[in-house]
Amino acid sequence: MSDNNKKAGRPAADWPKVRSGPLMAGGILIGAGTLLALAGLAVAGAHVAAATRAWMEELETPPGELARLRWEQAKTAAAAGAATWRGHPNARVRLARRASSASGSASG
């Protein structure tokens, strides 16, 4: 096969010829685009962070305090529900297995 390539005047590997100029220009443009995208991300992120900070300062109750209040409410509700459940008349009922039904089903 290499004899056929020599006779036809082609190189041994059929790889395309690539010029370095367009590849370098493409790489530079990709790098510049990446830097522009990162700069845009930084500007937009800073704006969103500042707007969120300003919004939180306008709230009557800070988010941390509101979360603490909700947690206390949840704990109180859970304790009340557990106490009611324990005090319910059905909570004292226990299931018991009958000895006759267990032995009757095994022999039947």
Give a description of the structure:
- With 108 residues, this protein is mostly helical.
- It has helices at 2-8, 20-58, 63-87, 99-107.
- The protein has a domain at 26-83.
- It has four helices and no strands.
Write the layout of secondary structure elements.
Blueprint lengths: L1 H7 L11 H39 L4 H25 L11 H9 L1
Gist?
This protein has four helices and no strands.
Intertermini distance: 85 Å
Using the CA coordinates, give the radius of gyration.
39 Å
- How much of the sequence is in beta strands? under 5%
State the assembly state of the protein chains: single chain
* Structural class by helix and strand composition: mainly alpha
Helix content: over 70%
What are the key terms here?
108 residues
